[in-house]
């Protein structure tokens, strides 16, 4: 689809990360579709910023595999490639397994409450068909052990490869939302019982068993 005709301007104090996140999210949520050409001038106008942070964001997105940059020619949104998706899924699964295994013993009542609240939001969003809100809630739930771990390297890896997995997951979301909510509850219960081995295994399997066949967009 073309660049949206209007967007609320971002503050002048906008950091490079903010531009990157806006563009990343627009790719993940399908605003910019696979194969679509991204022109830095159009994107800068859409976001209300100069071309410099847009160009820097596109370089980061290229490193993440979300766009394909051809120097001197064009930058396009990358297709959902099965090999890249499988690789990203496996890395994401391993990082979440590590975070859970290392932190379950020190998660407190507030952490568990945050996870349960996120699952309630997940259920509510799934019931009303709000895919973005549901996936945001899912991210919030799984972020609790990652935040507790406090490992900057793990965080950077998830920031790089997580969007690749989420992008594909959006296109197939909805077929097992109720089952996902039940898995969340079982996972939270294992964390609450401080069963690090079982919780870590469940975290790994939750991510690792995601299908890697490139989904087809509908509509």
Describe the protein's topology.
Layout: H1 16-28, H2 40-47, H3 51-64, E1 67-70, E2 74-77, H4 82-103, H5 109-127, H6 131-149, H7 152-172, H8 177-192, H9 196-208
Antiparallel strand pairs: 1-2
Helix pairs in contact: 1-3, 1-7, 2-3, 4-6, 4-7, 4-9, 5-6, 5-8, 6-7, 8-9
CATH fold group of the largest domain: Four Helix Bundle (Hemerythrin (Met), subunit A)
The count of domains is: 2
Q: Characterize the main sheet.
A: 2 strands, antiparallel
- Secondary structure class reads mainly alpha
Strand order of the largest sheet: 1-2
Mind telling me which CATH architecture of the largest domain this is? Up-down Bundle
Please, could you describe this protein's structure?
With 219 residues, the chain is mostly helical. The protein has two domains: 16-77, Winged helix-like DNA-binding domain superfamily/Winged helix DNA-binding domain (Arc Repressor Mutant, subunit A, Orthogonal Bundle); 82-208, Four Helix Bundle (Hemerythrin (Met), subunit A) (Up-down Bundle), CATH 1.20.120. It is built from nine helices and two strands; from the N terminus they run αααββαααααα. The protein has helices spanning 16-28, 40-47, 51-64, 82-103, 109-127, 131-149, 152-172, 177-192, 196-208; strands spanning 67-70, 74-77. Strands 1-2 form a two-stranded antiparallel sheet. A hairpin with a 3-residue loop joins strand 1 (67-70) and strand 2 (74-77). The protein is elongated, with a radius of gyration of 18 Å. The two termini are 12 Å apart. The mean pLDDT is 88.
């Amino acid at each position: 689809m073309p660049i949206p005709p209007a967007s609320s301007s971002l503050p002048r104090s906008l950091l490079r990360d903010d531009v990157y996140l806006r563009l990343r999210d627009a790719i993940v949520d399908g605003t910019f579709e696979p194969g679509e050409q991204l022109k830095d001038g159009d994107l800068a106008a859409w976001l209300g910023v100069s071309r410099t942070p847009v160009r820097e964001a596109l370089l980061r997105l290229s490193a993440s595999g979300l766009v394909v940059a051809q120097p001197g020619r064009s930058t396009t949104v990358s297709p959902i490639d099965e090999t890249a998706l499988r690789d990203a899924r496996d890395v994401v699964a391993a990082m979440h397994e590590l975070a859970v295994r290392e932190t379950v013993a020190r998660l407190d009542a507030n952490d568990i409450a945050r996870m349960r609240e996120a699952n309630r939001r997940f259920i509510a969003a799934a019931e009303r068909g709000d895919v973005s809100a549901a996936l945001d809630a899912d991210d919030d739930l799984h972020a609790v052990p990652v935040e507790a771990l406090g490992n900057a390297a793990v965080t950077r890896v998830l920031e790089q490869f997580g969007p690749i997995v989420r992008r594909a997951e959006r296109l197939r979301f909805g077929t097992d939302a109720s089952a996902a909510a039940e898995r969340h509850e079982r996972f939270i219960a294992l964390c609450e019982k401080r069963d690090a081995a079982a919780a870590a295994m469940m975290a790994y399997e939750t991510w690792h068993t995601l299908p890697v066949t490139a989904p087809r967009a509908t509509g």
